[in-house]
Write a structure and sequence with these properties.
Two copies of one chain form a homodimer. In chain A, helix 3 (75-94) packs across helix 7 (198-218). The first copy, chain A, has a five-stranded mixed beta barrel with strand order 9-10-13-11-12. The radius of gyration of chain A is 26 Å and the shape is elongated. With 473 residues, the first copy, chain A, is of the alpha+beta class. The model of chain A is unreliable at 1-26 and 45-51 (pLDDT under 50). Chain A has helices spanning 42-47, 56-59, 75-94, 108-114, 116-119, 142-152, 198-218, 304-308, 332-343, 371-387, 410-419, 457-467; strands spanning 63-67, 70-73, 97-99, 105-107, 126-128, 134-137, 161-170, 185-195, 223-227, 237-244, 250-255, 261-263, 287-302, 312-314, 320-322, 324-331, 360-364, 396-398, 424-428, 438-443, 448-453. Chain A folds into two domains: 17-30 and 358-467, Rossmann fold (3-Layer(aba) Sandwich), CATH 3.40.50.800; 70-343, BirA Bifunctional Protein, domain 2 (2-Layer Sandwich), CATH 3.30.930.10. Chain A contains twelve helices and 21 strands. Chains A and B meet through strand 1, strand 2, helix 3, strand 3 and helix 6 of A and strand 1, strand 2, helix 4, strand 3 and helix 7 of B.
Chain lengths: 473, 473
C-alpha cells in the first residue's frame, strides 16, 4: 500500500520524512491536507461580537479580502467558479457562441471613438504605458469586439455571430461592498451578437436570454427577468436578470397576473403605482415588491458601436450596411457570491448543486496512535478508488488529516466537513472495520444520516449521481 | 432530421429563416460555421511579399493583434490554451498544488515592503484609483501570496504548502515582439511553495521541477532545464526551462557528457569557454550552443519574501521561524505561441497532440443545389453522433458550410481544414453515399490518406484514441 501507485504508476517520488503528509497526494487522490482552506477557528469568530452574513465566505476559508473590492478567491470557491464558468460555456456553445479572449488593457482611442471615455469617467481605471499612451482596464468590451469583428467581417454569411469571453473586468467602485458582489475586480461573461438587421438582432436577443434562463435554472436559482433601463450602453431594449434576495440593492416590481417584472429605476418618480402597466387593457392591482441582485443583463445596442468602429457588410444592392449588435453579461463572481450568501449559514455553505466544488468527502476518524487509523485510511482509499470513476472521477476528497489529530481533532474535522457543504459525507469510524462493517453516510442536502453496509455504499451513491446534473472539471 | 433534437430534446427554438445556418448548432453538435476563425484569404496573404513566420498564427485566424503586445486570442487558439491550462492543472494537483486566484491590482505598499516597487521600475504598469491609492498590475505575485499565507499560517503542519494560479500577468515591455512570446499582457502559471526549512524547500523545488518535466513531456516538446541567474527575484538557486528553437532569444550551452545546461547570461564575459564547468573533475570539450525560448523558471527564494511579509511559524522551542519559499512559473501563452510557431508552416498548424483544439473534422463536400448535399450532411451528423462519445465527446466538429458554397467552396474548406491541423479529417464525397460506401480518412499527423469503409471508421478512430493522451474540456 505504501509503495505502489495505482494511478500514476512509476512516477512516485521517494518521499523524505517531512513530506509524509503529502503521501496521499502522490497517489493522485485528492486530499483535504493539500487544499488551502484557511477557516477561521470558532474562537477567532466569536472575537467579533456577531458573525455578519457578509463574512460567511471568509470564515469558511473561501474568500479573503486583499484591499477593499479586491479579493483572493481561495481554492474551494475557485473550483466552484470554474464549474460555474463551465456551465455557462456549455449553454453558450449550444446557441452557437464562440469563445475568445480580449486584452484587459484597452487603448483610449477606442473608447474615445464611441464617446464612452468620458461618460464612464471615474468608474474606469485609467493608466499610461511607458510610451505615454493611454489605456483603461476594460469594464466591458463593446469597443474591443467591434474593432476585432470590423477587421474581418466581409459577408453577411458570417452572421449571426455570437462571440463571448469569460474573464476579469475592472471597475473603480467608489464604495466597494458586499464581497464579490460589488468588487473592483471581478469576473464576467460578456457576449456580443452581430446580426444583419434589427429583426435578426432581436432574435439573437431572445435566444441568448433563453440561454440565460437555462443557466439560472440549472443553478436552481430564483432569478427574474426584468425590464430595465439601457443607461450609458445605448440602444432601446434592455433586460436585467435579478436574483431575488432580501439584501439585494435593487427594487423589483413583479405583476402577479402577467408575471412581468420591472426595475424601479426604470420608473420616473411619481410614476410608481400599484398597477401593472405591462398588462395590456387589464386592470390589476397585484404588484409585488421584491429586492434583487442584478446578476445578468441584456442590451439590444442597435448600431451605436458598429458605427463607431465601422462594422459593415455589403448587401444585395452593393450598399454598406451597419451591423446590428447586442451585448449580454453575466456577473460570474457576483452570482457566485450572492447565491452562496443567500443559501448558506455560518455553519453550512450550501452550493448550487451543479457547481458544488467536491461532491463527496470521506472522513476516516481516529488518531495517529490508534492501530486502527492505518486501516481506516486504507479503507478510505479503497472507497475513494471505487467512487472516483466516471463523472465522479474528480469529485471525491479524503480528509487525510489523521496525522494532525493534536491540532485538528475528529470533532473539528467533522465540523469543517459540515461547514464546507459536501453533498455526501462518508464517515469511517471503528465499526466500519468490523466484519459486518457499517458506514455512516450523511446526505447534507436533505440532512439525513443512515448507516449503510460498506458493500452497498458505492452503488448507492453512483445511482444518485447517474441522474444528478453536476459539472465536472 | 430537421425537427428532432437528439441531444437537447425539447429545448429547440423555432428558427426563423435567417437562422438556418445556425440549425446545426442547435443540435448541440459543434460546427465550423459557429466558430470565429477569421483566416486571411490567400489573396490577402500574397499581398505582403512573403508571409513571415511570425504571422502564421494570425493568418490561420488564431490570433489578432490589438496593439503592440496586446492580443485577441481567437476561439481555436483559446481552446488550445484552456487545454494547456488543464494539463498544467493536472500535474500541479498531482504534487499537492492548490489553485487559487489573486487580484491583478496589487497595492503599492506590498511591493514597497519587498523593495521591488522601484527595482522593476518601468517594466511595471502602475496606476492610481479614484482615492489616489497606488497599484501595479501584477507581473508576478510573491508579495501577494506571502501576504495571504502570512495571515493564516499558524502551524508547521500546514506545510509543505504549494499554491498556484493560472492567470493574466502584465509587463510593460519596451519592445513587445514575437506575438505572445513577448507580450505586455500574457497568461502565466505561477506556483509558490512554503516549507519549514531550506532542506524541505529544496525538496519542493525538485518535486515541482519534475512536474514541469512531465508537463513538457506530455506536450512532446524539446525542453531543457538550464542553470540560471536569480536576477531581481532573490535566492541563490534558479533554473530555467528552455524550448529549443532556432529563433529563441536566449543562448544555451549544453554539455554532451553530463547533459547539464546553462544560460549564457549566467556566465561573466570572458568566462565563456568550450569546457563544461559542471562536469566535476573531468575534462570535456563537447559543449554545444543552442538557442532557446524561456517557457518556465524555478526560483528557490529563501526567506526574502517571508521576512517582508512576516510569514512565520512557531517551532518546538517556541521560536518564530521564517518560512522558506520558492517561486515557479510557466509562461502559458508564450509556450503555446512558441510551440506552434516552431512546428507549424503557413499551410499547416501543428499542435502538440495533447492540446489539439479539436481532434476530428468531418467535411461533407457538395453544394446547396446538389441533391446529395442533404444526404451528406445527414451522414456527417450520424458519424458525428457515433464518434462524439467518451473522451471524444467534445472533440469532433462538422464543417457545415455547404450552404456557403458560393463564397467558401469545397476546395477552400479542405484547404482550411488542412491548415487548422485537425489530426483526423473525414472527407465525405459522393462515393460515401454509394452502397459499398467508402470514406476518405486523412491522418494529418503522419500525412497518410486511406479509403475506409463507412462501417469501420468509428472503430478505427476510437481504437487510436484509446491509447492517445488527449486533454478534453
Amino acid at each position: 500500500m505504501w509503495t505502489k501507485c495505482h494511478r500514476f504508476n512509476g512516477l512516485l517520488t521517494v518521499l523524505p520524512h517531512w513530506d509524509k503528509p503529502l503521501l496521499y497526494r502522490y497517489y493522485g487522490r485528492q486530499t483535504v491536507s493539500s487544499l488551502f482552506i484557511p477557516m477561521m477557528r470558532t474562537s477567532d469568530q466569536s472575537a467579533s461580537a456577531s458573525v455578519s452574513r457578509k463574512t460567511i465566505l471568509e470564515n469558511a476559508g473561501l474568500l479573503k479580502q486583499s484591499r477593499p473590492g479586491l479579493y483572493y478567491i481561495l481554492p474551494v470557491a475557485l473550483r466552484a467558479m470554474y464549474k460555474l464558468i463551465k456551465v455557462v460555456d456549455e449553454e453558450m456553445t449550444r446557441i452557437g457562441g464562440s469563445k475568445l479572449g480580449t486584452p484587459c488593457l484597452i487603448p483610449a482611442d477606442l473608447w474615445q471613438s464611441s464617446g464612452r471615455w468620458d461618460t464612464l469617467g471615474a468608474e474606469m481605471f485609467k493608466l499610461k504605458d511607458r510610451h505615454n499612451r493611454h489605456y483603461c482596464l476594460g469594464p466591458t468590451h463593446e469597443e474591443s469586439i467591434s474593432e476585432l469583428v470590423g477587421t474581418y467581417l466581409n459577408s453577411k454569411n458570417m452572421m449571426p455571430l455570437r462571440l463571448y469571453q469569460i474573464d476579469r473586468k475592472f471597475r473603480d467602485e467608489i464604495r466597494p461592498r458586499l464581497g464579490l458582489r460589488r468588487a473592483r475586480e471581478f469576473w464576467m461573461k460578456d457576449m456580443y451578437s452581430f446580426d444583419i438587421d434589427k429583426e435578426a438582432s432581436l432574435n439573437s436577443y431572445e435566444i441568448i436570454c433563453e440561454a440565460y434562463v437555462r443557466i439560472f435554472k440549472r443553478l436552481g436559482l430564483n432569478v427574474v427577468k426584468v425590464v430595465a433601463d439601457s443607461g450609458a450602453m445605448g440602444g432601446d431594449t434592455s433586460h436585467e436578470f435579478h436574483l431575488i434576495a432580501d439584501d439585494g440593492e435593487d427594487e423589483i416590481l413583479i405583476c402577479d397576473q402577467c408575471h412581468k417584472a420591472m426595475n424601479m429605476e426604470t420608473l420616473k418618480s411619481g410614476d410608481v403605482t400599484a398597477e401593472c402597466n405591462l398588462c395590456e387593457g387589464k386592470q390589476n392591482k397585484n404588484i409585488q415588491k421584491y429586492r434583487g441582485v442584478e446578476i445578468g443583463h441584456a442590451f439590444y445596442l442597435g448600431t451605436k458601436y458598429s458605427k463607431a468602429a465601422s462594422v459593415t457588410y455589403t448587401d444585395e444592392n452593393n450598399c454598406k450596411v451597419y451591423v446590428e449588435m447586442g451585448s449580454y453579461g453575466i456577473g460570474v463572481t457576483r452570482l457566485l457570491d450572492a447565491a452562496l450568501e443567500i443559501q448558506s449559514t455560518s455553519n453550512k455553505i450550501r452550493w448550487p448543486s451543479v457547481i458544488t466544488p467536491y461532491n463527496i468527502c470521506i472522513v476516516p476518524l481516529g488518531s495517529p496512535k490508534d492501530n486502527s487509523s492505518q486501516q481506516l485510511l486504507q479503507l478510505a482509499q479503497q472507497l475513494y478508488d471505487k467512487l472516483a470513476v466516471g463523472k465522479l472521477q474528480n469529485e471525491v476528497v479524503i480528509d487525510d488529516r489523521i496525522y494532525l489529530s493534536k491540532t485538528v481533532g475528529p470533532g473539528t474535522r467533522l465540523r469543517q466537513a459540515t461547514l464546507l457543504g459536501y453533498p455526501y459525507l462518508i464517515i469511517l469510524g471503528k465499526q466500519a472495520l468490523q466484519k459486518q462493517g457499517y458506514i455512516e453516510l450523511e446526505d447534507q442536502l436533505n440532512g439525513s444520516k443512515q448507516n449503510i453496509h460498506i458493500d452497498n455504499i458505492v452503488d448507492h451513491i453512483q445511482q444518485v449521481y447517474e441522474k444528478r446534473d453536476i459539472c465536472t472539471l
